[in-house]
Each structure stands twice: as C-alpha cells, then as structure tokens.
Amino acid sequence: MDARLNLFDNPVTAKALKHLVSASKVVSDSALPAATQELVKIRASQINGCGFCTDMHTKDAAQAGESSVRLNLVAAWREATVFTDAERAALELTEQATRIADAAGGVTDDAWANAAKHYDEDQLGALVSLIALINAFNRVNVVVRQPAGDYRPGQFG
C-alpha cells in the first residue's frame, strides 16, 4: 500500500509538517510527563484510526520503557487498573477533545476540572497543545492513507 501523497517529498506538506514538528518539540520539552504524552498520542491516534501514528507512538513508548500491558490497554483505559488518576484524566480530556464534533458542548467542565486537579497550568497548556497537534498529524496521515507497520523508533530523529 502506498500513500496517496508523499508528505516528505511534497514541498508544501514537508514545510507544514516541519512546523508541526517544531510545535511538538515545545510540548515534548514541557513538564507534562513523557509517559502521559505517549498515552495521549496513542489514544487520539486510535480514535482517529491513524495506523501510522498508532504504530509510531506505541513503538516509541515501548522503546522508552512503557510496559506492553499498559500499551495494550490504552483503548480500554476506563476498565484498566494500570493507569494513574492523572493519566486517566489526560486520557478523558484527549477523548473528549478528539471527539469534539460528536459532543454538543465539546469538552465537559468535569473533564477539564479533573485534568486541572492533576496538572498545573503549564502542563494543561502542553496537554491541550499536544491533543491538538496529534489530531492534526492523525488527520494528515489518514487523508493520505499513510501506511503503518514499518516505523522504527527514532526514525525521525
């Protein structure tokens, strides 16, 4: 399977992705825990059906030491006992923000308040930015049908 468009060879998409990657660097350098960042990226990618990003972020998380049990349970985080309350709050915010079009009110006050119990304002800013960025990456990859399965951890530096 080939992508509809080569995102890396096309000058417009390559430049746009470069800016998304730069914004992502700000988030990755933030105080939001790295494990939480990967869980958020995985969950949004699962919801959006982005195989490329799901492949990438599960492999990167495993490379960083995340357990296979936690990785296998991200989609069922509500029933799983392996996530902290803070991670659960981040996953709830991720789901609501990713499914924003499905909910008349967008993100609920309860989901926001729960996240705010666990994260300071800078971390919340990073979390909101991360959710927006991974959704943008997911949409680009889904639209062009970017194939999944061949990603190698660290492949993009």
Automatic annotation (TrEMBL):
InterPro entries hit by this protein: AhpD-like, AhpD_core, CMD-like
Which superkingdom heads the taxonomic lineage of this protein's source? Bacteria
Q: Does the keyword DNA repair apply?
A: no
Query: What Pfam families does the record point to?
Result: CMD
GO MF = peroxiredoxin activity
Q: Which keywords does the record carry?
A: Oxidoreductase, Peroxidase
Q: Could you tell me which residue ranges the Carboxymuconolactone decarboxylase-like domain spans? A: 25-95
Statement: the UniProt record of this protein carries the keyword Oxidoreductase: yes
Q: Which Gene3D superfamilies match?
A: AhpD-like
Q: Which NCBIfam families match?
A: ahpD_dom
Protein name per UniProt: Alkylhydroperoxidase AhpD family core domain-containing protein
Q: What is the lineage of its organism?
A: Bacteria, Bacillati, Actinomycetota, Actinomycetes, Pseudonocardiales
